[in-house]
Write a structure and sequence with these properties.
- InterPro entries: Alpha/beta_knot_MTases, tRNA_m1G_MeTrfase_C_sf, tRNA_m1G_MeTrfase_TrmD, tRNA_m1G_MTases_N, tRNA_MeTrfase_TRMD/TRM10.
- Belongs to the RNA methyltransferase TrmD family.
- This protein folds into two domains: about 150 residues, 3-Layer(aba) Sandwich (Alpha/beta knot); about 70 residues, Orthogonal Bundle (Trp Operon Repressor, Chain A).
- The protein has eight helices and nine strands.
- A five-stranded parallel beta sheet has the order 2-1-6-5-7. Strands 3-4 form a two-stranded antiparallel sheet.
- Strand 1, helix 1 and strand 2 form a beta-alpha-beta unit.
- The longest helix is centred in the C-terminal third of the chain and has 19 residues.
- The mean pLDDT is about 95.
- The protein binds S-adenosylmethionine (SAM).
- S-adenosylmethionine binds next to strand 5.
Length: about 240
Amino acid sequence: MRVDVITIFPDYFAPLGLSLVGKARGAGVVDLEVHDLRTWTSDVHRTVDDTPYGGGPGMVMRPEPWGQALDAVGPGTLIVPSPVGKPFTQADAYDLAGLDHLIFACGRYEGIDQRVIDDAAARMPVREISLGDYVLFGGEVAVIVIMEAVTRLLPGVLGNASSLDEESHSAGLLEAPVYTKPAAWRDRDVPAVLRSGDHGRIARWRRDQALLRTAARRPDMMAAYPPASLDKADRKT
Ligand code: SAM
């Protein structure tokens, strides 16, 4: 997968050289390049912003550098992190993981001149994606989050791809609690069933815990869970 990130803060992306995303880059699974938007400015101050038409506080990112930057790295699927975008989900991560070329446009200040997004949409698919109902300083952190979620879905990145099957948000439920050694710690024991070696009972316990957790913490997810996906034992839980 080819990924281009355009930002005025290239240094923000150092974490994408670490851990499994860094490994995926090293292995050539992700070919990620970070570009400084100011490369495409033409004045001595390398200006990327100006006052908003219509007045109001803050500054808006000017269209010219953005237009040139997107002409240079595009076409691809343009992703614009934005609090007015569609809330990001695991389904979106799977969707993006299937694409060949992602281009991220990191907004700052009051955001990017709307014409940049409208102009790009005439030439390539554009998705405005929100991390949630709050406002960040800029799109950089959102890109790091999206890239982590997408990269771990790419073939060959996780050592054991089956860990994707039952994790939270993959099958419409939250995952059951997890435990490791020691079996007893501060008077707290690992549930006996997990030490029983009985794979059928363990699977049933995990499924029950996933259903109970989801119902307690995310009634919205439980309500959206297809009744046809519930078996007889699920209904008792
Ligand atoms: N004036 C904008 C508004 O009220 O919708 C907020 C601009 S915000 C200060 C600057 C940039 O941060 C945005 O252009 C976007 O790139 C990024 N950003 C802020 N909140 C975000 C969120 N919830 N999800 C994704 N990106 C966000």
